[in-house]
Amino acid sequence: MTLNRFYPIFDHSDWLRRMLPLGIKLVQLRVKDQPMDVVRDQIAKSRDLCRANGTVLVVNDYWQAAIDAGCDWVHLGQEDLDEADLIAIRKAGLKLGVSTHDDDELERVLAMDPDYVALGPVYPTILKKMKWHQQGLPRVTEWKARVGDTPLVGIGGMSVERAPGVLQAGADIVSVVTDITLNTDPEARLRQWIEVTR
After folding, report:
1. Rounded Cα distance, 28 and 99, in Å
2. Residue 132, SS3?
């Protein structure tokens, strides 16, 4: 299965309801700091919206809830990997995407045979405080050489203007959050994203 090159991340199913009809084919639901019943409700709503639109849904962090909801993909950060039951995830048939930021993390992740590897932050990001500085485009090229056929996702500080360079550097997929959600016209910005990643 080939994943779409455009990979937006949203924190609520309302965003998916707005944006999926515009042509998104790969999306992540990243719910933060909510009670578990809200998380499960958001996952179920997002699953149904994605299925209706022919979109691949990746659930961030909540691997058990993703299994329970019959989802197909989960994304785990490095901290999540410490507590996740990778055997249960694989047994349930979920595909796995994982975040990496340095050499040790990449080595750890490659041993898990992930379905994609994310590298970030490629550029400075306002989304969350990180101990890593921007990785830069040469790092994208290096990471792609190391992951081989595994899809590489570039994330962090992404914009429509930066996307072509990240793809040319070796990323298979570009992931974005605030360039869409903080835009004064998110729908128009999303259409630009689809155009530039075709």
Report:
1. 13
2. coil
User: Where do runs of H (alpha helix) occur along 26-151?
Assistant: 36-53, 63-68, 78-83, 86-91, 103-110, 137-147
pLDDT confidence tier of residue 131, bands split at 50, 70 and 90: low
Separation of alpha carbons 94 and 96, rounded Å: 6
Considering Cα of 29, then 34, then 35, then 37, what sign does the dihedral take? negative
β-partners of residue 7 are 175
Task: Give the residue from 169, 176, 103, 100 showing the smallest Cα distance to 136.
Answer: 169
pLDDT in tens, 171-198: 999 999 999 999 999 999 999 999 999 9
CB atoms < 10 A from the CB of 33, how many? 7
99-119 burial, b at 16+ Cβ within 10 Å, e below that, comes to bbbeeebbeebbeeebbbbbb
Reported confidence tier of residue 1, pLDDT bands at 50, 70, 90 = low
Asked whether 7 and 173 are in contact (CB, 8 A), the reply is: yes
Strand pairing of 73-76 and 26-29? Answer: unpaired
User: Which residue, 66, 74, 77, is CA-closest to 39?
Assistant: 66
Q: What are phi and psi of 102, to 5 degrees?
A: -150, 175
